[in-house]
Amino acid sequence: MATVAQFDITYTQFLNEHGKLVGQLPPFAHNHSALKELYKIMVLTRTFDKKAIALQRTGKMGTYAPINGQEAISAAIGHAMRPEDVFVPYYRDYAAQFQRGVKMSEILAFWGGDERGSQFSCNSKDLPICVPIASQCLHAAGVAFAFQYRNQPRVAVVCLGEGGTSEGDFYEAINVAGTWKLPVVFIVNNNQWAISVPRDQQTGSQTIAQKAIAAGFTGMQIDGNDILATRQVIGDAIEKARRGEGPTLIEALSYRLSDHTTADDATRYQPCQEVEKAKPKEPISRFKEFLIEQKIWDAQDEESLVIQCSKEVEEAVNEYLSMETQPISSIFDYHYAELPEYLVEQRAIAMEEATHA
Ligand SMILES: Cc1ncc(C[n+]2csc(CCOP(=O)(O)OP(=O)(O)O)c2C)c(N)n1
Fold first, then answer.
1. C-alpha distance from residue 142 to each of 17, 203, 237 (Å)
2. Considering only Cβ atoms within 10 Å of each terminal Cβ, which end of the chain, N or C, has fewer?
């Protein structure tokens, strides 16, 4: 008997949960302004997240998917991408979207059930938030194929949860990406839960990263709460794809320190000891400790950042709350270029009822 193939799955961490460096500083991290930008976007995103939950709780917004505890993944994606790349997000990617030019008020509008939230005023080529799990992976493969076909040095970056990697759409997307060496990076936010389904009941695979091996390309794990690891590894994978060296799958290990969405109550299924254990590993506090120790950040910087973030979020909330209400017909009009016959009828009924309401 002979071994015909062998593979490794690596794990990368630069900053441990106490904010201490593990080994050498990664190359990008010698740039102090990059470090500050990453810290600021994570703090802004957390401020936004808290406010968005409050808006839902007070009846001013529909369901909302929090990002609490997973900010480092999304912050790194937005920071590592170039403007000409295309981001294909799922519904927990705000830090990346903000850096890509999406307004906070647009994200609020999206969760407020207003389709204008997906019509980004920055005119970006990025795709809107995708809720059908893993379907965005196929969209990203398609975008990447277009870049390859046109010979453009551009990259598609797609994000999904670990639960999404059980879907057929995910497997089909990684299959075509591996076969055609597409310029796409798959980033899995492994927050350990798919609503109430824990990671160990999700798949028999030892890691999510190794799913890429079957598709013929590299898969790796990183500490998804370590901003130094997320930014360096995601950036490297994007540049590798840009050079025509094919796709990468990055499994970023994190933890969902919130309900799945505001329609959920995680206390009914997340063991509280597990949550307590995960809390100190969240990404912002360890990075702040590191920045302070390196003398890149101080208490005064922190104070002005907190004020600035609250101000920006308040302005976004006011913008969202002052948006003109959409007519009932918008439910129909945003979904089809041409409405199917049965919906033409339903649209007319909805309009009629709205005038009598
Ligand atoms: C195709 C599809 N099936 C089911 C759902 C319902 N659903 C919404 S979120 C979710 C769990 C997703 O978990 P995961 O992919 O791990 O991402 P997370 O929400 O934890 O970030 C499910 C099953 C959906 N949105 N789309």
1. 38, 26, 18
2. N
Which H or E element spans position 186? strand 184-190
Q: Do 157 and 196 share a structural domain?
A: yes
Confirm if 89 and 101 have CB atoms less than 8 A apart. no
Mind listing the pLDDT tens digit for each residue in 179-219? 999 999 999 999 999 999 999 999 999 999 999 999 999 99
Q: CA dist 208 to 20, 70, 132, 186, Å? A: 27, 17, 20, 11
DSSP assigned state of 23: S
Q: What is the CATH number of the domain that holds 87?
A: 3.40.50.970
Q: Say whether both 322 and 336 belong to one domain.
A: no
Residues with CB under 6 A from ligand 1: 92, 131-133, 160-164, 189, 191, 193-195, 256, 260
With respect to residue 192, please indicate whether it lies within any of the assigned structural domains.
yes
| Residue to mutate (ligand 1; options 64, 74, 92, 133; most atoms within 8 A of CB) | 133
* Structural domain of 281: 10-326
Same domain? 86 vs 128: yes
What is the pTM (predicted TM-score) of this model? Answer: 0.97
Residues 322 and 333 in one domain: no
Atom of ligand 1 nearest to the CA of 256: 20
Residue 51 CA to ligand 1 center (angstroms) comes to 23
